[in-house]
Amino acid sequence: MAGDDSGGAGASRRRRGTADADKGKGQVPDVADKPSSSKTVQSTTTAVNKDATPRTDPALFQPQDADAHQKLLKRSSVWQWIEQGQVALSAGRGEYWLRCRLCSTVFRGSSSKAVHHFLKPQKPCPFRTGEIVDELVTNQRGKVKPSDKKTEYLLKNARGLARCPEGGEEHVESGSDAEDPLSEPYAPTSPGAVCSTANCTHSCHGK
């Protein structure tokens, strides 16, 4: 009788162990996946921050203070429309991050690159004016390519307006003025002198 009882208890324990094992098969632990997922997100964020520049993220641009900007203005008038920021990554080449005050475009370079921003044929500053182009060409040695018709137009238009008085118009001689001899100036004559101009109606002929 004791042997039967022990045998029955052992069989019962085996059945419970089998049932618990079956329950465990349906459960997949997800704890091991959490550290791997967090590491992936962290590495991706680090990579993005490492590659970010003032060009890709304008919030990273750090403009020079007012005193430094005034010194730049004394060197070149282009700094009226361009801000200089921090040194670019390739230190030692004299390149800084630059930002246009008109269109907010951020790029890297020196003062020559700043001038080029307004005079380049492809995608120049969309808010540039003829006066800016004239200033950079006249005083900053900027060059306009002959094939760049838009910049040429801005330059010629600005220089044409500069030659005319404010609010005035250039006088163009008409054909009738050129053919009419009476419209030509003549020298004053003394009383009694004979004028050499044909068909003269002046008082010198007593008419």
TrEMBL record:
Compositionally biased tracts (Polar residues): 35-48
Top-level taxon of the source organism: Eukaryota
Ranges annotated as biased composition (Gly residues): 1-10
Region (Disordered): 1-62, 164-193
Record-given protein name: BED-type domain-containing protein
The organism of origin for this protein: Chara braunii
